[in-house]
């Protein structure tokens, strides 16, 4: 393993070169994605591959690091097969926290751990940080403590570095080991606002900024991916921010909402917020601003549960929901955390009423998070919607009506990969800033405006939802 190359002014690719594309790689918790983009954000090709998640013991959630790298190399080779020599730069993003433990040769010493793992609960610090963010077992610091306390002495001696998942894949691409401020911040490892490490742990990788070059494709990774050796690879950022960047959120009043497994609601602000207690406050990939986020496991995964439980095809169900009248049935979308509930259910309700309540309940949960977010981000005027719900027109309209805010659906579905590609584009000098990259590469595909009457109708349900949240916490 070698240390990161020294930084310098980004170099703009020669206009006479044949470099016409940016590559975004997204290392998710269950899938790995690679998307090749033109400089105007058009998708040239994309590939997605699942990576098996292992649960060898209760509370353990693991994944094989070697298999994850194999999958990343495969999707990169697939999307660049006809354009490998035309890739100007590569950006990498990925799921935050968890850990991949490496020895002195850069090889994993055990299975990697994902952030949903809770084995390290006893090693979590007992108090929130200065911004009121609560630590949890899946963070890197707790997992390092667990590793040193429970693994064999030989395993402990062999540990040289623990890295996040995107950093592991980028290391295999470049043979350069580093992380960035966004992942370190989400792991609770930084002092704010100085952006200094809380502890000098030798197992932590060196930090670089998200827009810095982290290295180049090595001859070994070139054989695996099909990319030319020397292709520049940029540090990148955590996946939640990459999704916000890729969705085009940049100005005050604009918020990125991701309605997927988690309810993610995030905005950029210019300074560390005075209001504490947000789910996450993080240094941004672009210097001089911060990402503030509210979230919980209360989003579109609840609809997947309903499909498995009540049956039917998603397309047929949502078309029926479109024709179903509002019934005042309340759903608490906390099924993933074991606290879900229907409230007001009676014999007059049909299966389609249940589905509508599930979809509206998810909107209520997002609305609650957005109200918390507004304490630091200010009034919200526009939402960009991503995740599974964004592919459902009926749900998009429910979001617009329920929130009472304009909802835009980005043209590119894989906003995380696009955000990673934008970071690479700024790093290599194609764009002077992330804002300019967003203006060039991100645009809405559809816009949904709220119906005032429907917003008033659903607001009564929302007030009932809030009162129920006192006893059923998200």
Write a concise keyword list for the protein shown above.
single chain, 474 residues, alpha+beta, seven-stranded mixed beta sheet, six-stranded mixed beta sheet, 34% helix, disordered N terminus
Architecture blueprint of SSEs:
Elements: E1 21-27, E2 31-38, E3 43-50, E4 62-63, H1 65-80, E5 87-94, E6 100-102, E7 112-113, H2 140-150, H3 153-158, E8 161-163, H4 165-174, E9 179-180, H5 181-186, E10 190-191, E11 196-197, E12 207-208, E13 213-216, H6 219-225, E14 232-234, H7 239-246, E15 254-259, E16 263-269, E17 280-283, E18 290-296, H8 301-310, H9 314-323, E19 330-332, E20 341-343, H10 351-377, E21 382-386, H11 393-403, E22 406-410, H12 415-427, H13 434-441, E23 444-448, H14 452-468
Parallel strand pairs: 1-5, 5-14, 9-12, 15-21, 21-22
Antiparallel strand pairs: 1-2, 2-3, 4-7, 6-8, 10-11, 13-14, 15-16, 16-18, 17-18, 19-20, 22-23
Task: Characterise this structure.
The chain has 14 helices and 23 strands. It is α+β, with helices and mostly antiparallel strands and 474 residues long. The strands form 7 sheets. The chain has a 7-stranded mixed β-sheet, with helices on both faces. Strands 3-2-1-5-14-13 form a 6-stranded mixed β-sheet. Strand 2 and strand 3 form a beta hairpin. The longest helix is centred in the last third of the chain and has 27 residues.
């Amino acid at each position: 393993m070698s240390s990161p190359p020294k930084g310098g002014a980004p170099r703009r690719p020669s206009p006479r070169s044949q470099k016409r594309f940016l590559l975004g790689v997204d290392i998710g918790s269950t899938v790995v994605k690679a998307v090749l983009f033109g400089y105007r954000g058009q998708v040239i090709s994309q590939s997605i591959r699942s990576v098996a998640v292992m649960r060898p013991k209760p509370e353990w959630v693991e994944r094989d690091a070697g298999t994850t790298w194999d999958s990343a190399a495969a999707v990169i080779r697939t999307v660049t097969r006809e354009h490998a020599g035309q890739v100007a730069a590569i950006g990498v993003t990925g799921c935050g926290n968890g850990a991949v433990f490496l020895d002195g040769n850069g090889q994993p010493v055990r299975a990697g751990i994902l952030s949903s793992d809770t084995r390290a609960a006893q090693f979590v610090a007992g108090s929130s940080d200065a911004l009121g963010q609560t630590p949890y077992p899946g963070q890197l610091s707790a997992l390092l403590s667990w590793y040193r306390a429970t693994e064999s002495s030989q395993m402990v001696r062999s540990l040289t570095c623990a890295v996040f998942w995107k950093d592991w894949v980028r290391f295999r691409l470049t043979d350069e080991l580093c992380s960035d401020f966004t992942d370190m911040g989400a792991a609770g490892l930084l002092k704010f606002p100085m952006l200094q490490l809380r502890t000098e742990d030798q197992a932590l990788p060196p930090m670089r900024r998200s827009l810095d070059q982290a290295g180049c494709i090595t001859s070994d990774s070139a054989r695996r991916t099909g990319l030319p050796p020397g292709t520049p690879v940029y540090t990148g950022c955590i996946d939640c921010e990459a999704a916000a960047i890729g969705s085009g959120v940049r100005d005050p009043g604009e918020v990125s909402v991701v309605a997927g497994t988690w309810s993610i609601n995030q905005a950029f602000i210019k300074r560390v917020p005075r209001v504490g207690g947000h789910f996450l406050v993080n240094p941004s990939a672009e210097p001089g601003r911060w990402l503030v986020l509210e979230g919980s496991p209360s989003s579109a995964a609840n609809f997947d549960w309903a499909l498995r439980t009540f049956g039917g095809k998603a397309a047929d169900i949502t078309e029926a929901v479109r024709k179903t009248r509002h019934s005042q049935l309340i759903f608490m979308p906390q099924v993933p955390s074991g606290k879900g509930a229907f409230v007001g259910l009676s014999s007059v309700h049909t299966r389609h009423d249940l589905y509508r309540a599930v979809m509206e309940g998810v909107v209520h949960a997002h609305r609650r998070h957005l109200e918390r977010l507004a304490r630091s981000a200010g009034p919200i005027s526009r939402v960009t919607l991503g995740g599974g719900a964004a592919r459902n027109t009926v749900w998009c309209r429910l979001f617009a009506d329920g929130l009472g805010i304009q909802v835009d659906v980005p043209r590119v579905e894989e906003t995380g990969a696009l955000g990673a590609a934008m970071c690479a584009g700024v790093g290599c000098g194609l764009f002077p800033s992330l804002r300019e990259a967003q203006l060039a590469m991100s645009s809405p595909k559809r816009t949904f405006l709220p119906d005032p009457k429907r917003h008033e109708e659903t607001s009564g349900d929302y007030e009932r939802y809030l009162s129920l949240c006192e006893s059923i916490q998200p």
